[in-house]
Amino acid sequence: MDAVGRLAQTAGYAWKGKFVATQYHQRQAAGTQWDPQQYLKFADHRLRPALELLDRVPLESPRLIYDLGCGGGQITRLIAERWPSAQVVGVDNSPQMLAQAAEEPSRIEWVEADVHNWSPAVPPDLIYSNATLQWLDGHATLFPRLGEALAAGGCLAVQMPLSWGMPSHRLMRDTLADGGVAGQPLGTEVLRQSMARKWVADAGDYYDLLAGRTSSLDIWETEYMQVLVGDDPIFEWVKGTGLRPILNSLEGQERETFVAEYTRRLRVAYPAKSDGRTLYPFRRLFLVATV
Predict the structure, then answer these.
(1) Which residue, of 11, 17, 42, 103, is most buried by count of CB atoms within 10 Å of its CB?
(2) For strand 155-161 and strand 126-130, is the pairing parallel, antiparallel, or unpaired?
(3) pTM, full prediction
(4) DSSP state, 271?
(5) Spatial separation of the C-alpha atoms in residues 232 and 128, rounded to whole Å
(6) How far are the Cα atoms of 52, 84, 90 from residue 67, in angstroms, in the given order?
(7) E-state strands within the chain
(8) 3-state SS, residue 268
(9) Are 199 and 24 in contact (CB under 8 A)?
(10) Is residue 217 pLDDT above 90, yes or no?
(11) H or E element at residue 36
């Protein structure tokens, strides 16, 4: 199976004359009603990889830039500061996030759109996307499509969390599987299958997919040893992102049962240190592709 096939299979797609979805995707359960304050509880830790990705963009004077999945616009504003003569557009599907972004006056254009179906009217010089594309399926077609949308010499810069294999995310799946009364499963089979699928492929698969389509391709992984404070900080971290599909899908007593059991398991997997802080190793995948 080639890189396209592996990425399609990873994303829950099959080839039937075209790529057809075969799996319910976690972004459907995550929804568009994001809580900016919950997401920003760990703003410093979430900002660092975004800045490191931005620092690796090799462009000197791009004219048109899109920030896909701009959220509350923190990075979008930094992009506008780095290239003051560029037209900068922040794109997100969350009205709450965009409302927060628009609270601070700027020259940035804020656009509500589903990145999954988005395409630029004019080829941009930079498409930047930090911690967003992991929510989208069809990477085998999505990444080439974004690259083809760029102007000549343009750049695609992407960061995605490699969280599927981490204890925090494995315990999400385990708790759905056996966290109910007497070890019974929680949620629907569709939800459990969605959370069980590894939505971000390996770095080598993205290299195989993009290397022949780009003039330069920089791919790397970084693991951050995040030092978190507060009560149940791992739960609070994932509550703002990766846990959303589960919390949005469970209701009532079933939701309460999941939260209690999952939190208990997190405390065992990530015990607080003697100073009360908790270490949370977190790995991320970066790629900067120039066409």
Answers:
(1) 11
(2) parallel
(3) 0.82
(4) -
(5) 32
(6) 15, 15, 5
(7) 13-15, 19-21, 64-68, 87-92, 109-112, 126-130, 155-161, 216-228, 278-290
(8) helix
(9) no
(10) yes
(11) helix 36-39
Please, how many CA atoms are within 13 Å of residue 24, restricted to the half-sphere of its CB? 16
Please give the DSSP secondary-structure letter assigned to residue 175.
Answer: H
Instruction: State the Cα–Cα distance between residues 159 and 284, nearest whole angstrom.
Output: 7
Q: At what angle do helices 74-82 and 43-55 cross, to 10 degrees?
A: 30
Q: Provide the token pair at 218.
A: 């920089």
Three-state secondary structure call for residue 209: helix
d(C-alpha 24, C-alpha 4), whole Å: 20
Residue with tokens 């993205």: 206
Q: Which two tokens stand for residue 246?
A: 């589960």
Q: For residue range 118-159, what is the model confidence (pLDDT) as tens digits?
A: 999 999 999 999 999 998 989 999 999 999 999 999 999 999
DSSP string, 140-170: HHHHHHHHHTSPTT-EEEEEEE--TTSHHHH
161, 226 in Cβ contact below 8 A? no
For the chain, the first-to-last Cα distance in angstroms comes to: 25
> Does 25 have pLDDT greater than 70?
no
Q: Contact, 18 vs 186, CB < 8 A? A: no
Q: Which residues contact 102 (CB under 8 A, 6 or more apart)?
A: 73, 110
Give the rounded distance of the alpha carbon of 117 from its chain centre: 16
Cβ atoms within 10 Å, residue 16:
8
Q: What are phi and psi of 227, to 5 degrees?
A: -105, 110
Distance CA 44, CA 65 (A): 24
Instruction: Decide if 129 contacts 157 (C-beta within 8 A).
Output: yes
pLDDT at 178: 97
Strand order across the beta sheet in which 109-112 lies: 109-112, 87-92, 64-68, 126-130, 155-161, 278-290, 216-228
